[in-house]
Design a protein that fits this description.
The chain has 193 residues and is of the alpha+beta class. It has a seven-stranded antiparallel β-sheet with strand order 2-1-5-6-7-4-3. It has five helices and seven strands; from the N terminus they run ααββββαββααβ. It is 25% helix and 34% strand. A hairpin with a 4-residue loop joins strand 1 and strand 2. The chain has a single domain, classed as Roll (Pnp Oxidase, Chain A).
């Protein structure tokens, strides 16, 4: 992975708010780079959205935010892989609902949340060294310190899924634009059942 791209994506995070997909509800616009970076590193699931055949196609995936890119993986075949191998523009959404905010007026009840949307280009990772690094970052995110030896390029190149007999597909999303929204609430404001 090149330093130049990483610096570009780090710069992108610094420019949040100066983007093509401006958050209309400006009171909810989050421009805190550290908060966004932490949220992307710690969140466990995101939704990749792309143009499908007749309808938009959105799929939840496990992912890792690494060096300014989103990486995720999947089987080496299927609808998601077929669409993404055409390298379409995509969006990627990560969100967390924190709770329901109470209010004496029912119309003012609200949701406390954090969300980040990334818009950009997708590519299938064909370099097995990069794929091994990305997959190892995923393994370490979801199973920290469980496996002692990192994945190797040779292992990734030679491993075949029992589901489709293909190698694992690894995809890299290069963000061109990022928006973030949040609605913070105090614990005392949240509904407790």
């Amino acid at each position: 992975m090149t330093t130049k791209k990483t610096n570009v994506n780090s710069q992108l995070l610094k420019k949040i708010g100066v983007n093509m997909n401006k958050v209309k509800y400006s009171q909810r616009d989050c421009k805190d780079q550290e908060k966004i970076e932490k949220f992307l590193k710690e969140s466990r699931t995101g939704v990749i959205a792309m143009n499908g055949d007749d309808y938009p196609y959105a799929v939840p995936v496990n992912f890792v935010w690494y060096e300014g890119y989103i990486f995720f993986h999947g089987m080496g075949s299927g609808k998601k892989v077929d669409i993404l191998c055409e390298e379409p523009p995509v969006s990627f959404t990560v969100y967390e609902e924190i709770g329901t905010v109470t209010d004496p007026m029912p119309c003012h009840a609200d949701t406390s949340y954090m969300s980040v949307m990334l818009f950009g280009k997708i590519e299938k990772v064909v370099d097995f060294d990069i794929a091994a690094t990305a997959l190892w970052k995923l393994v370490e995110k979801y199973l920290p310190n469980y496996y002692k030896k990192p994945l190797t390029a040779s292992f990734i190149e030679n491993y075949k899924s029992s589901m489709d007999n293909n190698t694992t597909s690894v995809f890299k999303l290069t963000p061109e634009d990022i928006t973030a929204k949040e609605n913070q609430a105090e614990e005392s404001e949240l509904f407790k059942n």
